[in-house]
Specification:
The structure holds two protein chains of two kinds.
Chain A (H helix, E strand, L loop, with lengths): L1 E3 H5 L8 H10 L3 E7 L5 E13 L7 E6 L6 E5 L9 E10 L5 E2 L2 E3 L2 E3 L1 E3 L33 H4 L5 E6 L10 H12 L22 E4 L7 E8 L8 H9 L7 H13 L3 E5 L7 E6 L5 E3 L5 E3 L5 E4 L4 E4 L3 E2 L12 E7 L2 H11 L4 H8 L5 H15 L4 E2 L4 E4 L6 E5 L1 H8 L5 H10 L3 E4 L4 E5 L9 H12 L20 H15 L3 E2 L5 E2 L3 H4 L12 E2 L10 E2 L4 H13 L5 E11 L10 E11 L5 H14 L5 E5 L5 E11 L2 E9 L1 H6 L6 E7 H7 L15 E10 L4 H11 L4 E10 L8 E10 L8 H17 L3 E2 L1
Parallel strand pairs in A: 12-15, 27-31
Antiparallel strand pairs in A: 1-11, 2-11, 3-4, 3-6, 4-5, 6-7, 6-10, 8-9, 13-21, 13-22, 13-23, 14-21, 15-18, 16-17, 18-19, 19-20, 24-26, 25-26, 28-30, 29-30, 31-32, 32-36, 33-34, 34-35, 35-36, 37-39, 37-40, 38-39
Chain B lengths: L1 H17 L3 H12 L4 H7 L8 H38 L18 H15 L3 E2 L5 E3 H4 L19 E3 L2 E3 L5 H9 L4 E10 L11 E11 L4 H16 L5 E8 L2 E10 L16 E10 L1 H6 L8 E8 H9 L6 H4 L2 H4 L4
Parallel strand pairs in B: 1-5
Antiparallel strand pairs in B: 2-4, 3-4, 5-6, 6-10, 7-8, 8-9, 9-10
Helix pairs in contact in B: 1-4, 2-4, 5-10
Classes of the chains: A alpha+beta, B alpha+beta.
Chain lengths: 796, 340
């Protein structure tokens, strides 16, 4: 809400610097978005009166003017313009002056004649025709009125002012008005608030002879208030009024339209003026529109209305979309003779829906949407009429139209003062509370036990004790709130199991050199194509955002793979030689489509690595480390069939048949979809099951007391026999002394027959109660070798 | 024989003095004391001596042996020491060559900050809870005193996935769920991901992170709120930091405040960081609105509480002086590696 300081000063004495006013307003709840000092736009430009004009001796197109600028000596200034004349008042940029367009003016010589400055055109002062009449005329700006020479041009143009833009919170629609802000400023500065008291003369008559109003839909229009003004004298508004509008960012149009806008800005109540001659049947009907009913609004746009929208119509057609915009038909023109002024309250959600549906947002609709005061409509009308009278812009007819279904009585809230202070924790003197509430317009008395507060209709936001506490506190000052410690037991907060497990997982992954990443929860609809999911893959059933920022952010992800590949790709294409990354996040799985209830949010982790040192087994090592951290043993690794992984280089790890992780090398064509020409490795960890099966309780195992027998064997077997199968045979063959088997080499090549491979294991044998003899160890090894031999696996 | 012994003693002494290394020393030991050594050879001749001479010579020979043995031992120490010194000298390496390092892993800066925040509030007795990221309109708005078509809904542009289901626009959505399931005293924080349809730029992201805090108990006051936030500010911004409440509006708190901290760059005198204000806005807070308590079946005449919401991305970018929030979601390893 932009307000000029001079406008505020009409209703409250502001005798402190602007910065102090702003500080106090900020601390009472009104953030300042900007402060614009209009006087900074120009400097050292004054009114000058041309006393004499002579031709330049050496230049046909130049004239030498003698100018009275209110100083002892006149200034001699050379100008090229030919619209100047003796006696004219003109803007004079004196020596060492600054113009709004950034130009700095110094004295100089033109064709040998001294010139002590410059006469300014409207353009040089950045003025448009609407800012100042004659501003767009070619030549020097000729000033109107009777300004004394030497007067600062900023005064002439109304620039000795400051415009403050206050941010109004959604609970204070009453402050979308100059009077609302003035009331608050008065309280903040501890000054008297002096709102204008409307008064005007009428010419008698009876409104009912001019107009008849019917409200059909009171649910959308709780109050409709109107007056008639005859013989309007359409013309320009006075300068002071135009300046007020301009400071607030509105364009002056004509006195009648300007009055409606001025009243809206001042009181917060939007107004509309109808040309009575255009109201067919002398009748106004406030009604829901018919479906498909057409209307052309003031801005020239055509709209099709629906039956949910409220219109103000005459006997034939809509002349206004209620609270949003008038139609072109009933517009005030220079030929308008008689007018009907409307001040109404339309229901805020109705205006909001209508404005949104039509894609229109006006000063008026904004205020209706936030909510306006139903009582204030009358005051706003009175204010408009007093301006009509003051500007002599028309003749006011007696009688009012006031259609409503009953106006709300002032609400009373009774509260014990102690109930306010106990919420705040601050002792505020009773008298201070009473004074503060009264100054805010909440008539308050102390009854002996309770505060009795009459809440005015413009403060719909005040519902109870907490609201009164806030009103008192924000004015009494939040600096009175001192820090205290909460009462209660001294406890340390807890994390839930999921977070604790996430922490464990992050620990083991970072210990393995992985970096955590964070990506968006939504992905493109194409993500599932990019990773090659089949048509019937469940992960294609995604939750879609109805109003996404764009296609690429439109689907809630059902997998973390595509986000991980995108990040790996970013790194790869930025020539980062290696990356080891992980993300722990949620995937969103719909229970049914279309969505009728909240989807399942499932925690998942994704690991992605690439680089010279990485291969399938370095990835598997990370996955194994995770299992080790969560105490998960007895894992079974089987080949899997994820479409985005290399068919020969992927596996699923299961415990008791439950898949806990799927991992492998990324399919080269999927890597290509993400612009990567290098081998990339991915793992997905299914955290819900992983955490459920975790055994994180650690119990100490005594260290062995007797030495172990260490034996290495190298055997030859078929190339396609998994190492895990050989290991299983060793386990079967070995006796109870077997402690550990560790694979340390796999060899294929010239030293070995085609289709075969050699596999080497370290075997640790140990007895718990004695040192194994060589014979015992040999015996165990023989059993192992026999078991292997039975399967055609021979010692190499 | 005595002469011979004396000769051996002398020769051995000289040889041992001049021997240069342990190998030579060992050779000398064998030469004199070995089974076929010179002294041994003499001792073998003892049988040929008279019984009178034998003890005298025997003693003499033993003296020579002891002399040589002693000499060998001391020379061994000397030479051993010398050899060690030489080895150490030879083994000197260039200690400026960089070490072999394991690639270090690490947490995302947002996680680091979130963990810090959790730890601060845990120590003040706040439990950490989570809520769904896809929420119902009821929990995200309505139960928070934001009925449909309330003008304050304009404060946030929300992503919808169905008429009444949306991506939560604030972690406050978790408040009501907690109050429905827990009885006072309640002290919780809920850090998490939230969504608003803001176009992506240097300071806006459609996905960002907040941490909601909620306390409900008998006799909770606004001064308690300040106490908790001051503690938090001291931990995050330093013990000198001052906390200021400024009136504001949130539908689910009343009174509502914006919370500012004194600028840590200038100490509150005004500088570039705080744009001359001396204060930096860090979070919104307030006393839980009676309507919200009532909605959760908690009697506002008996209980009171406060809530606050902290923007974690903002704290992260401020702490590390990250100029563009997009960096947080881009995950360039050269960025990630900076957070140890």
């Amino acid at each position: 809400m932009k307000v000029s300081l001079s406008w505020l000063k009409r209703y409250v004495d502001i005798d402190v610097p602007v910065s102090e006013l702003c500080d106090k307003m900020i601390m009472s709840g009104f953030e300042v978005e900007s402060i614009e000092d209009l006087s900074k736009t120009m400097r050292n430009v004054v009114v000058g009166k041309i006393t004499k004009i002579e031709k330049h001796p050496d230049a046909d197109k130049l004239q030498i003017c003698m100018i009275d600028v209110g100083e002892a000596e006149p200034l001699q200034i050379v100008t090229g313009a030919d619209n100047v004349f003796e006696g004219a008042l003109v803007p004079v940029a004196k020596h060492d002056s600054d113009l709004p367009n950034g130009v700095h003016i110094k004295k100089g010589k033109l064709r040998g004649v001294a010139s002590a400055g410059m006469l300014c055109s409207g353009e040089e002062l950045c003025l448009k025709e609407e800012d100042y009449k004659g501003a767009e005329v070619y030549g020097i700006l000729i000033l109107q009125g009777d300004w004394a020479p030497g007067t600062d041009m900023r005064e002439v143009l109304g620039l000795m002012d400051t415009v403050i833009d206050f941010k109004i919170t959604a609970n204070r629609p009453d402050c979308l008005s100059v009077l609302g802000i003035a009331r608050e400023a008065a309280v903040a500065l501890k000054k008297e608030f002096r709102p204008p008291v409307p008064s005007y003369r009428t010419i008698g008559g009876d409104i009912s002879e001019h107009i008849r109003v019917t409200v059909e839909d009171y649910d959308l229009c709780p109050r409709y208030y109107g007056r008639v003004v005859k013989n309007v004298r359409i013309g320009e508004s006075p300068e002071w009024l135009k300046r007020c509008l301009k400071a607030a960012g509105m364009r002056p149009i004509s006195n009648i339209v300007d009055i409606t806008n001025f009243v809206m800005l001042e009181t917060g109540q939007p107004m509309h003026a109808f040309d009575l001659a255009q109201v067919r049947g002398k009748e106004i009907i406030v009604r829901r529109a018919r479906d498909g009913e057409p209307v052309t609004t003031l801005d020239g746009k055509q709209h099709q209305l629906t039956s949910e929208m409220l219109v103000i119509g005459d006997a034939e057609a809509p002349s206004c979309i209620a609270g949003v915009m008038g139609s072109a038909d009933s517009e005030i023109t220079e030929n308008t003779k008689d007018i009907f002024f409307e001040c109404a309250k339309f229901r805020r959600d109705s205006v909001r829906k209508t404005a949104r549906a039509l894609g229109m947002r006006t000063e008026s609709s904004t205020r209706f949407e936030k909510g306006i005061d139903v009582i204030n409509t009358e005051y706003a009308m009175e204010r408009a009429l007093s301006l009509i009278d003051e500007l002599n812009a028309g003749d006011i007819i007696d009688g009012v139209i006031d259609k409503n279904t009953g106006l709300p009585a002032p609400r009373e809230i009774r509260v014990e003062p102690a109930r306010i202070t106990e919420l705040l924790g601050v002792d505020i003197p009773l008298s201070a509370m009473v004074d503060i509430l009264n100054s805010l317009g909440i008539a308050t008395e102390f009854s002996g036990t309770e505060l009795c507060c009459q809440v005015p209709s413009f403060r719909e936001d005040i519902e109870g004790r907490a609201d009164l506490a806030e009103e008192v506190m924000r004015i009494y000052g939040y600096d009175h709130i001192t820090a205290t410690a909460m009462k209660g037991d001294i406890i340390r907060g807890r994390k839930d199991a999921l977070r604790i497990n996430h922490d464990r997982l992050k620990g083991v992954l970072t210990a393995n050199g992985l970096r955590e990443i964070t990506t968006y929860s939504f992905v493109s609809g194409k993500a599932v194509d990019q990773i090659g999911l089949s048509e019937d893959d469940a992960r294609r059933k995604t939750v879609k955002i109805l109003n996404p920022l764009g296609e690429e952010y439109s689907n809630m992800r059902t997998q973390l793979v595509s986000s991980m590949l995108t990040v790996l790709s970013t790194n790869y294409n930025r020539k980062n030689a290696r990356a080891r990354l992980f993300e722990i996040s949620k995937v969103y799985l719909p229970k049914a489509l279309p969505i009728t209830e909240q989807p399942v949010e499932q925690p998942e982790a994704c690991i992605g690595i690439y680089g010279k040192e990485e291969d399938f087994y370095s990835l598997k090592g990370i996955v194994e480390a995770v299992f080790a951290r969560f105490g998960i043993t007895n894992l079974e690794y089987t080949r899997s069939a994820e479409p985005y992984l290399h068919p020969g280089r992927q596996a699923t790890a299961r415990m008791d048949g439950v898949p806990l992780a799927t991992f492998g090398e990324v399919h080269p064509s999927v890597a290509e979809n993400f612009d990567m020409e290098e081998r990339v490795y991915l793992a997905e960890l299914h955290l819900a099951d992983l955490y459920r099966l975790a055994q994180t309780k650690v119990l100490y195992q005594p260290l062995p007391r007797f030495p172990a027998a260490l034996r290495d064997i190298t055997v030859t077997c078929d190339d396609d026999l998994p190492v895990a199968a050989v290991e299983k045979l060793i386990r079967t063959g070995a006796g109870k002394h077997l402690e550990k088997i560790e694979l340390f080499d796999v060899y294929k090549g010239s030293q070995i027959a085609q289709g075969k491979k050699s596999v080497s294991f370290s075997i640790v044998l140990r007895a718990q109660d004695r040192t194994l003899t060589v014979e015992e160890a040999d015996h165990d090894m023989n059993k192992i070798l026999q078991t292997l031999a039975a399967e055609g696996i021979t010692l190499r | 024989m005595e002469q011979l012994l004396e000769q051996i003693r002398k020769q051995a002494g000289e040889a041992l003095d001049s021997c240069a290394d342990l190998k030579e020393l060992d050779e000398l030991r064998i030469k004199y004391l070995g089974k076929k050594g010179e002294l041994t050879a003499i001792l073998k001749q003892m049988g040929g001596l008279s019984p009178e001479e034998r003890p005298v010579m025997g003693q003499r020979a033993n003296e020579v042996r002891a002399y040589i043995e002693e000499k060998i031992k001391s020379r061994m120490d000397e030479l051993g020491k010398k050899a060690l010194e030489m080895r150490l000298a030879q083994e000197t390496i260039d200690i400026t060559i960089p070490g072999r390092r394991q690639q270090m892993g690490g947490l995302h800066p947002l996680s680091i900050v979130t963990e810090d925040m959790i730890s601060i509030f845990q120590s003040m007795g706040f439990d950490v809870v989570d809520g769904p990221e896809i929420e119902t309109d009821y929990y995200n708005f309505e139960a928070l005193n934001l009925p449909k078509d309330h003008p304050a809904r304009d404060m946030q542009d929300t992503f919808y996935i169905a008429e009444n289901i949306l991506l939560r626009s604030q972690t406050s959505a978790a408040q009501v769920r907690v109050m429905e399931t827990r009885k006072p005293p309640i002290r919780i924080i809920c850090p998490g991901r939230v969504f608003r349809s803001d176009e992506v730029d240097a300071t806006h992201s459609p996905v960002f992170h907040q941490m909601e805090g909620l306390v409900v108990d008998r006799g909770i006051t606004m001064c308690d709120l300040k106490g908790v936030l001051e503690q938090f500010a001291h931990e995050v911004y330093g013990p000198e930091t001052q906390v200021r409440f400024r009136p504001s509006f949130f539908p689910f708190t009343e009174p509502s405040v914006e919370v500012d901290v004194s600028c840590s760059a200038c100490g509150g005198t005004g500088c570039k960081v705080c744009k001359g204000a001396g204060w930096i806005e860090i979070l919104g807070a307030g006393m839980v609105h009676p309507n919200v308590l009532r909605c959760c079946g908690i009697d506002p005449e008996v209980y009171s509480g406060f809530a606050f919401g902290i923007g974690l991305d903002r704290i992260t970018t401020t702490r590390y002086k990250i100029s563009d929030i997009r960096l947080l979601f881009e995950n360039d390893v050269r960025f990630l590696e900076q957070f140890q």
